[in-house]
Amino acid sequence: MKQYNEYEDKLVSYDTAVKADSVGYTNLSNKYDIECFTCDKDTKTIFDNWAGLIPDGHHFLCHRPTISGLQKWLRNVHRIHVFIGFRPHIQKFDSYAYSLDMSPQDHKKWRTMQKFTDQQIFNDYESALEAGVVEGLQLLLDI
Fold this sequence. Notes:
The protein has 143 residues and is of the alpha+beta class. The protein has 4 helices and 5 strands. The protein folds into 2 domains: 57 residues, no CATH class; 65 residues, no CATH class. Helix 1 packs parallel to helix 4 and helix 2 runs parallel beside helix 4. The longest helix is centred in the C-terminal third of the chain and has 18 residues. It starts with 13 loop residues before the first helix and ends with a helix.
């Protein structure tokens, strides 16, 4: 399956795209967000296709945004920020999502508690970003 769009932006995974669709993601604000997942009605196989070129026998399933496009949508539409941290001593990344409407005291308390939970560590920035975006989508689902 395709990993990058024609502009070399990383595309989200199928599971992330479905979750974004379930919280009402819309791609109207991002002109580069033209990818989608389609489904073959006979075999129920999922394919990634350009939204303007859905082949015969397929139907639109959901948009497939770029990770950065989905991050921007979370921030601009829902005021959820995805933070990516770098741990220089192990050369790896971590991420977390939080509401920009949180007070500074609540954020500090919440971030302190995050340090004591099992946090995923990633080898590359894009994987950490997608995990943070998924966490942000989960915040929307929990509201």
